[in-house]
Model the fold of this input.
Amino acid sequence: MTEETTLQRIRERFPAAVISEFRGQHRVGADPATIHDLLEFLKDEIGLKLLVDITCVDYLYYSGAKDRFGLVYLLANPETSERITVRTFVNDPDPEVPSATDLWEGANWLEREVWDMFGIRFAGHPDLRRILLPESFEAHPLRKDYPLQGLGERHHLPIVTRDMG
Done:
């Protein structure tokens, strides 16, 4: 399937999707309410079966940004090397999107990382808990409004030592 065919099929199935190009790679923007359907379509009907990454961008201090958080899904077809970036936007006070764990098992840890660092909830996630920080940690340190020096939590984390002998 050619890239133009892929884009045409996306336009037909998701007319509200915004398709753009950045540095030679296509991006598809979708509403959070339809993001799961779009991801499922791209995986099952287009063949983008590899979930490369899920990450997030905090647009808090970007002038002209309409939304606070941009959620980014990187998908690829391992057989044809076709790649596409899928984006959706969510806002405070309760940023949430549907989980993609039913589509890709690997989404489990990726969504947990985004939850841990940015506080984006993934509805339907089977085990949404911290993956990098202790459960007692209350903030989300990759948010732009998180203080550079932290909130004092470094001084309250238990120090774990291992016997090297």
About this structure: Helices lie at 3-13, 35-46, 107-118. Residues 35-46 form the longest helix (12 residues). The CA atoms of residues 55 and 114 lie 6 Å apart. The chain has a mean pLDDT of 90.
